[in-house]
Amino acid sequence: MAVSQETVEQVASVSEKYKYGFVSDIEAETAPIGLSEDIVRFISAKKEEPEWLLEWRLKAYRYWLSMEEPTWAKVDYPKIDYQDIYYYSAPKTKDKPKSLDEVDPELLAVYEKLGIPLKEQEVLAGVEGAANVAVDAVFDSVSVATTFRERLEKEGVIFCPISEAVKNHPELVKKYLGSVVPYTDNFFAALNSAVFTDGSFCYIPKGVRCPMELSTYFRINAAQTGQFERTLIIADDASYVSYLEGCTAPMRDENQLHAAVVELVILDDAEIKYSTVQNWYPGDENGVGGIYNFVTKRAACRGKNAKVSWTQVETGSAITWKYPSCILQGDNSIGEFYSIAITNNLQQADTGTKMIHLGKNTSSTIISKGISAGRAQSTYRGLVRMGRKADHARNHTVCDSLLIGDKCGAHTVPYIENQSRTAKIEHEATTSKVSEEQLFYCQQRGLSEEESMALIVNGFCKEVLQKLPMEFAVEAQKLVGISLEGSVG
Amino acid sequence: MLEIKDLRAEIGGKEILKGINLTINPGEIHAVMGPNGAGKSTLSYVLSGREGYEVTGGSVTYMGEDLLALSPDERACHGIFLAFQYPVEIPGVPSATFLKTALNAQRKFRGEEELDAMEFLKLVREKTAELGIKDDMLKRAVNVGFSGGEKKRNEVLQMALLEPKLMLLDETDSGLDIDALKVAADGVNRLRSPERSALVITHYQRLLDYIVPDFVHVLADGKIVKSGDKSLALELEEKGYAAISAA
Ligand SMILES: Nc1ncnc2c1ncn2[C@@H]1O[C@H](COP(=O)(O)OP(=O)(O)OP(=O)(O)O)[C@@H](O)[C@H]1O
Ligand SMILES: [Mg+2]
Fold it and tell me: Does B92 sit within 8 Å of A444, measured CB to CB?
């Protein structure tokens, strides 16, 4: 019987509840609740921003006022009261820390709890010769620790909080901010432009291969604080960078809004690889709590032979509304989108991509793996547009859905617009179920029901998992198991 | 080792096993033969704990424990291995990963150190070499696109690696060419020991030339209608089930 006890513990450890459900005590300095021109001015003043940026924010705010929240996505949630949200909160540090020693130990403890990989903890702690990963930690909207900057600086790579870039590299920010995602783009992009508090900025100069993978950990901490990140990455001619974005959030009863904007600019012969593992709090079994994740991510391949790949593993959030897109403007440019979206319990995800082919010989690949369990709803929504001048452009789309149980749903909504006579567009879609037979086969070999499910689902996602950088792939595989907790039996 | 008493089971409300009695002692090999639809696979599923197979009466004791109270994975970890009549495909999961995950799950259960990738590879190479199975199968997704014979060989390889105490083989010989048949038989014979037992379900006495059973049972319409030694298999081959069951 001791053996059975051990099994119980094994199962318990696999099916651990959301392990990031803690609230840190770091005192926030918070703006008054609600949104108005004054709040926009408050944020801009807090960040000591130049006039042009304040003006831009105000324009965005006024534009936002004229817009309606979109309703076309297949997600359902109570109306968000935008006056019931705090738009600014910063960890209480008077001056910016000069080194990690000056960083609030509470904050470092948060990283610890988050299970930031040891390698990156070392980096955060400034251990000499530590891994080749630079972490720009975004904590409650303000970057408090940026490491490895020196090594990057030697190569001319700029990697810093965007608020700092505004001060130190205004010409770059002014040139590119809003150039891929203008504030007029959509409701959430307009909101973000008005009130974004921080995010990462990255510039890779001509001909430079970034010597390490750049990594940012996003966290949402203060209760009822909307998170409005703004990320801008520019890869100059013939440069390369791999960027990792990881997210976790503490447990909450209140639904929290997250409306980030990510802009990527890729010039001639350059490449950006952008990987995301998103495991924000999805809400409990009854759909209480959880993050609303409305993100606008877009890459512009401006130069010839430019390449971008988006790889995402989305397991968290109560609601995900996210379409990382590629504008393939330069001739021969390449866009890739590899996605795993897992929804369980009452989660809803409406995600996909847009491939806008403008240049000649542009090509794009879309591989989307959607997994639905519990009563979750998952939608793939993808647009492939071939412009008039996109001679010989090519797209290949594979869209697979996997259902666990019979109360969940998976939907595929492909939009195709073709104005090019020579373009080729291929679309494949499948829907399958995890069969009782497969589960039994695994269990008969000694795997628990949860482990069996994790193995089968990881198999289903394999093509996408393989696209992730190594450290991320391992984390993502574990996440697949954790996020399907409670989906069997 | 295994004691089945008056076991009754149904699927979807239909009674399939109608009172099975069978005792398997350590080291013994029992062959079960019988017409299509008699309930042979059902028996193997009930013993391994498949969902949907409802036990309505009787008991099964395995190494002193109430087997029916254990979950399928617990049974597997306690050394019960079922070589499937129809092995299942798991797309995207390389056979090697599947095997390693299974082996480590069982090792963990027994409180043994898990094998790392190198140790596992060494072990699996030994087994494939012993059995004369090509190891390119290991890179391919579990059973996906395998020929019928390859699937069965894969079952035998899994069994060799997991070293079960009680082997349940459900028509592992069906669809095998003569060489593969020898591989399968070899897999069982290599594991044969005074502690290990096997229940071998087959339609063909030919297999029993290679895996020599201690007992042969005839299962018909959910019951064991006749038991004997290996000569019973020859008799069956000669006269057919009808004559034997009627006798
Ligand atoms: N899921 C099911 N629902 C209803 N009846 C079933 C189900 N599975 C099996 N049966 C029935 O149970 C009976 C026994 O099936 P079983 O597979 O155990 O036979 P078997 O002896 O293994 O036959 P074979 O020699 O053809 O493999 C058959 O009549 C079969 O149709
Ligand atoms: Mg059968």
Answer: no
